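User: Hi! I'm working on a homework problem where we have to compare a predicted structure to a textbook description. Could you give me the structure for the chain below?
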Amino acid sequence: MGRHTGRRASRRVFPVFDIKAIRDNPAAFDEALKRRGLGGEFSAAAILKVDEERRAHVTKLQEAQARRNAASKEIGAAKKAKDDAKADALMAEVASLKDFLAAGEARERELTADVEKLLAVIPNAPLPDVPAGADETGNVEVRRWGGPAMLTFKPKQHFELGEALGLMDFETAGKVSGARFVYLKGALARMERALAQFMLDVHTDEFGYTEVNPPLLVRDAAAYGTANLPKFAEDLFKTTTDYWLIPTAEVSLTNLAREQILDEDALPLRFTAGTPCFRAEAGSAGRDVRGMIRQHQFIKVELVSITTPETSLAEHERMTRCAETILERLGLPYRTVLLCTGDMGFASQKTYDIEVWLPGQDMYREISSCSVCGDFQARRMSARYRPKGAKDVRYVHTLNGSGLAVGRTLIAVMENFQQADGSILVPEPLRPYMNGLERIAKS
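Assistant: Happy to help. Predicted structure tokens:
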């Protein structure tokens, strides 16, 4: 398994941005990108220059096609009039136009691809209430739940606890697979499974999400649809047979609406899945090398919503509360922050990060990221709906969030429920999933 091997599979490309909207209001487009810290080659002027060349070329092709059609009709008239010289000249003109159109259509495809390539690497426009900022220091805390436990001993980090218990083995995983892998054993392996089951049960039974067991391997078009491609190919793993391993179930779940026209009455669609996820972590060299914070392979429970433009912001707040509720049920302190323009994801219009308290690190760490994407992903996968009583269709809005990252939740439980003797209390909601086990201790 590599990251960029094998032939490229063909994909059907859909419009990334509404080029007409950029043409009609270039200043608004530039302002949105400016808030993202972008400009220059990504400006409206740069994009429209390439698009104007394409449009001018298309006009020439249309004129040539019209002339070819007219000349073809004139050939018959010339032959009927027995004007062989004119008929020969017209046939030569038609042949020439045919060659011109063939070459011109190839050039049109190239120009269209140039516009698509440029637009495909431009991020979504942030909503007006997203704070401006260059990095995480510009994020704004919006609420906090619980508080760090007052421990009477110096807390250990999760990997210290897990290794001391003999239930977390990084050394053997390194021999087998390399860095950023781990063997979980015994009660810790069972707790990770219990956490995923608990999350899925809450999201399906209480919050109305439909559980899905989705593909873990996807084609180019699916990863393009959620905007993981082309910009973030280095962060993904790819098989030698042209499949991408999903970095999150968001890819598989959001593509359930791909190339569909849904009825408004069917919305919102809410999906959840607990799956292995795979990330190359190409941009995180040297960060969180020790422990389970940043792994190449991990389990995550994902939440995805497909809804209308009018309800997407309310759905965003709802989704975030669903993720927060899991932490509250487990008794894990957290804070929720609104990400600034420089820290939010590529496809996002607005993102809340939920950060859980880790005593061993003496800091809050991200455990969930809930984003509303507007029609950004829907355009890339042609996901639309028909409003009640309307003939025209509109793009749906998509949302995604972690409900939660299971491995990081395991870390949070271990560190927050650790005892002075190195044992770990099992939170009450998990005990039914662990055959009543109340404490994880060294055998």
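For your comparison, note the following. The chain has two domains: 19-120, 136-440. The mean pLDDT is 92. Good luck with the assignment!
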